[in-house]
Amino acid sequence: MTETNGQSSEPGLSPENQAVIQLTRKDFVSDQEVRWCPGCGDYSILAQTQKVMPDFGYPRENIVFISGIGCSGRLPYYMNTFGFHTIHGRAPTLATGLKAARPDLMVWVITGDGDALSIGGNHVLHSMRRNVDFKMVMFNNRIYGLTKGQASPTSELGKRTKSTPSGTIDTPIMPLTIALAAEASFVARSVDTHTEHLQGTLELAGRHRGSAFVEVLQNCNIFNDGAFRDFTDREVREDRMLLLEDGQPMIFGKDRDKGIRLRGLHPEVVALGDAVTEDDLLVHDAHAPEPYLALMLSRMWWPEFPVPVGVLRDVARPTHDELLTGQIDAAVAASGEGDLARALKSGETWTVE
Amino acid sequence: MTTEIGERQLHEQELDRVTIRFAGDSGDGMQLTGTQFTRTAAVFGNDISTLPDFPAEIRAPAGSLPGVSGFQISFSSSEIHTPGDQPDVLVAMNPAALKTNVGDLPAGGALIVNSDAFTQQNLNKAAYAGSPLTDGSLKQYTVFEIPISTLNARALEGLEMTNKQVDLTKNFFALGIMFWLYERSMDPTLRWVDQKFSARPVIAEANKRALKAGYAFGETTEIFHERYIVPPAHLEPGVYRNITGNEATALGFLAASRLARRPLFYGSYPITPASDILHQLSTYKSFGVKTFQAEDEIAAIGAAIGASYGGALGMTATAGPGIALKSEAMGLAVMVELPLVVCDIQRAGPSTGMPTKTEQADLLQVMFGRNSDSPIPIVAPATPAECFDYAIEAWRIALKYVTPVVYLSDAFLATGAEPWKIPSPDKLPDIAVENVTDPSSYRPYARNPETLARMWAVPGTKGLEHRIGGLEKADITGNVSYDPENHHQMQVLRAQKVAGIARDIPPLDVYGPPEGDLLILGWGSTYGAIRSAVERLQANGRSVAHAHLRYLNPFPANTEQVVRSYRRVLIPEVNLGQLLMLIRARFLIDAVGYDRVRGKPFRIAEIFDEAERLLGPTTRESIAPARAARGRTHSRERKAKRRTGDD
Questions:
Q1: Closest CA to B397 of B328, B499, B254, B268
Q2: Helices (DSSP H) in B511-577: which residue ranges?
Q3: DSSP for B427-490?
Q4: What number is the average pLDDT over the span A133-146?
Q5: Based on the structure, what is the number of domains in chain A?
Q6: What pLDDT, on a 0 to 100 scale, did the predictor assign at position B629?
Q7: 10 Å Cβ neighbour count for A165?
Q8: Tally of CB atoms within 10 A around B4
Q9: Chains A–B, number of C-beta pairs less than 8 Å apart
Q10: How far is CA B445 from CA B413, B499, B510, in A?
């Protein structure tokens, strides 16, 4: 079903702009005042996004940011590109239509855990399975921020919020598992405060052809402060997060003394030493045609496991717009450009003198 | 067998108009039979009008009452507007079809039944205590009992087919009989069979044999004593084809794409009765048409808006339940002011309602069914062929005013057919508009002073990077704005933009006297029944006019003047008074409604009778003797009483 191709992610230069365009981060900063709460993780995501934009070689006018509703939805206003702040959960649908009509554009979808996984869940599934060529960046703060603090689909079981004073009784879903189940061809995770890693991840997503799904663990310092602190803080992150590197054994820890080994169908954390060597560990393969490994990684979470960050899956398959355009080209090749007069006269006709 | 037709004393009778209804089990191929008869009549040159009537279930239990499928065709040597109030001939392929349809057959009407299907089992399924063929209950009709299944099976002997396959061709035997009875050529249908079953020669042969056997049966049997000729109608010169409303709609959008010089993007989720538009447009790939079967109604319109944002003709189609789901996105299109066409092929509701049955009850939904004041222009074709023109017109308005537009059709228009004089593409209007490209003067919400259309720039245009969205916009700049006065101004601007379209559409046309006793005002698919009723009323000397709105928002500029020019205004609708509410609210006139919401179109006689009732007994002055002489059957009251009130 999928094709392995380690070099699938070509630079996304649009044909008429092969010449290098010298843009900087500042070129992507719009004149609008940024209005997220001070200290919000969104600032970092915006900054890293603006920073990586020049690398893709697209002129500003050929880049479109489309968002839904929620705090994340404001991001397009702050990007000096084309932008469309749509309605709750529906950004992927607009992006699908735009990309179908305009394959020449680079399209980013900005969304949140409520926007993408609750009200817009259906569109995430279907845009991913179609491999629509857009990059979806999902800000996951495990809370509804803009509506002032209700439980989200990723809130942990039992979480007390304004809407769940006795604790939520809904089991959370794992965004990356959902993306993988929906056949996403690029699936990755990063963290708002790990700026270099976030930049690198966005860079890879931007260069991927097809649907890219990036979960960014983002701190909402007002309604869910410290949601990821236990494993993202500087002092603990190396021991509690697993930095995925393609082709490399899964090793983590400040002293690189721990790893992930497969036992039966389950991963386990092991200490490297005399009994266990690097050869015993799982080796990451983001380009594996079947997503078993990625699915396993997508379910690993602190404190049972270190939280994996990086690219879980990166495979090449035809994009929606390529297939759509391909059918049109094939039809034109087979029967020539459509003739309106002939279409109007299709079927049985007769002449009245 | 060798009996010459002449020896049978076969009479030929010329008729102006005949209405036939084919009725059978939904597995009996009645829609196909009706369609083939329609094509043949159309190619022959008759004016035609059709009414398919089928159950929502694909295959309801065979032989059951809910499983009955019908197709009515009226064909004529003069202009007709409706598929006929009542059939002259009913072809009933089984007891259930007889039971559900015979009530519409007038006394003296011809009834052709497949007597083979009148088994005890089928009679039980149709809840007949005894056989209607023998209990005398059909004696007011001219009944032709024909063992169609048996005769057909005999004609197909020797072909390598299962009994079930053989039985599936009996509709063509019945069609053959009807072709003989109305002196129609079998050629168009034979050609169609060859084309359709080119890969399955045995099936093709079986269908051709069945058709020819039915025709030969008509010729050789002794039961028919007359054949009927309906001469061609005197239509305007030109090249014609037969067309349903959905076919015309799809072709209209295809043409609009060419006329606007922009690719068509059609996002849609399958829903009766709109799906055929998706099916047809998906075959126009060589025109660059991009179709997208979305995961749901919301994704369909979302993708359409996205495509329009990119500069294509982004559009979507659905029925009432789908409009409900699309409402929020329609509001977004109003706010961001992008061109978009949303088709509502209305069907009976509320909720799932009766999916295959017609209704025109979504008018207020598309007019008001969104949060806040959210004005959207609405166009509504009146006949199947007109669907073509209004599909183009919807796009003309959407592009010129940079606005979403609703195109309202319904199940009756969608599936009904009529002859269509095929237009020449070079005679169609140019609806192209240019996008803004000049950065020096670009402001996303600056407007064309005449149309109030905002400046529309598409992604990829250098220097015009800007942001739009569902949040309120500041006038001119399009930046997010919570300013109270700005919001009021923007609400007014959006309303004015749509209202101003009234200056750019044709005035409401009146058929009949410019003033008088009664105006019958309609919209959408009631056109045919109203026009026919008004013709009869006028022939009876009544001072009655017909006006039919194709633009429901805004109304044509002269609408108030028209509705104020008659003593009474009657608004027949297949809903409980929605246009009525708009007209009364807008113009403060005491219009009255006439509503029949049965999932079926109006009958001419119903509107005629209601108009007569409203007009009251005719005045002495208004009955010219000559008119009275050729008055038709409905003028029964007119000698009896004088109307009170003014003369």
A1: B499
A2: 527-539, 559-563
A3: GSPP---PPP--GGG--TB-B-TTT-PBP---TT-TT---EEESSPBPTBT--B---HHHHHHH
A4: 97
A5: 1
A6: 37
A7: 7
A8: 8
A9: 210
A10: 38, 18, 39
At A21 the pLDDT is 61
Query: What is the pLDDT, as a whole number, of residue B642?
Result: 35
B265: nearest CB among A61, A66, A100: A100
Domains of chain B: 6-229 (3.40.920.10), 241-427 (3.40.50.970), 439-504 (no CATH), 510-629 (3.40.50.920)
- Convert the pLDDT of each residue in A162-204 to its tens digit: 999 999 999 999 999 999 999 999 999 999 999 999 999 999 9
A324 occurs within a structural domain: yes
Q: Which residue bears the tokens 């079927």?
A: A347
Q: Which phi and psi angles does B100 have, rounded to 5°?
A: -80, -15
Report d(CA B320, CA B365) in Å as an integer.
Answer: 8
What distance in Å separates the CA atoms of residue A115 and residue A110, rounded to the nearest whole number?
9
Report the CATH number at residue A182.
3.40.50.970
Taking the alpha carbons of B434, B440, B445, B449 in that order, is the dihedral positive or negative?
negative
At residue A347 the predicted structure's pLDDT band, cuts being 50, 70 and 90, is confident
- DSSP class of residue B603? P
Q: B500: exposed, middle or buried (C-beta count within 10 Å: 0-12, 13-18, 19+)? A: middle
Q: How far apart are CA B365 and CA A174, in angstroms?
A: 39
Contacts of A133 (CB under 8 A, 6+ apart): A99, A103, A107, A209, A210, A211, A319, A320, A321, A322
CA atoms of A214 and A232, how far apart (whole Å): 17
Residue A162 lies in a domain: yes
Q: How far is A198 from chain B (nearest CA, A)?
A: 25
The residue to which tokens 């026919």 are assigned:
B532
- State the angle between helix axes of A91-101 and A320-335 in degrees (0 to 180), rounded to the nearest 10: 30
Residues of chain B with pLDDT under 70: 1-8, 619-647
Give yes or no for A343 touching B (CB within 8 A): yes
Tokens of B107: 């006394």
Give the pairing type, strands B238-244 and B290-293.
unpaired
Q: Which tokens sit at B475?
A: 């006038």
A-chain CB neighbours of B44 within 8 Å are 350
Give the rounded percent of residues in chain A with a pLDDT score beyond 90.
Answer: 92
Beta-carbon separation of A328 and B290 below 8 A: yes
User: What sign has the CA pseudo-torsion A54, A55, A58, A64?
Assistant: negative
- Number of CB atoms found within 10 A of residue B351's CB: 7
Q: Which residue has the tokens 């944002």?
A: B309
Residue B245 DSSP one-character state: H
- CA distances from residue B61 to B98, B102, B108 in whole angstroms, order as listed: 16, 21, 32
Range of the domain at A58: 15-227+317-344
Do the beta carbons of residue B572 and residue B520 sit within 8 Å?
yes
Task: Categorize the per-residue pLDDT at A213 as very low, low, confident or very high, splitting at 50, 70 and 90.
Answer: very high
Whole-complex ipTM: 0.94
Tell me whether A333 touches chain B (CB under 8 Å).
no
Q: What is the pLDDT of residues B551-574, one digit of tens each?
A: 999 999 999 999 999 999 999 999
Residue A223 belongs to some domain of the structure = yes
B546 contacts B510 by C-beta, under 8 angstroms: yes
Q: Which of A90, A94, A351 sits opposite B239 (nearest CB)?
A: A351
Chain A contacts of B460, Cβ < 8 Å? 61-62, 102, 104-105
pLDDT over 70 at A105, yes or no: yes
Task: Tell me the CB-side half-sphere exposure of residue B410, using CA atoms within 13 A.
Answer: 28
Asked if the model's pLDDT at residue A51 lies above 80, the reply is yes
> Is the bond into B444 cis (omega within 30 degrees of 0)?
no
Tell me if A198 is assigned to some domain. Answer: yes
Quote the minimal CA–CA distance from A87 to chain B in Å. 7
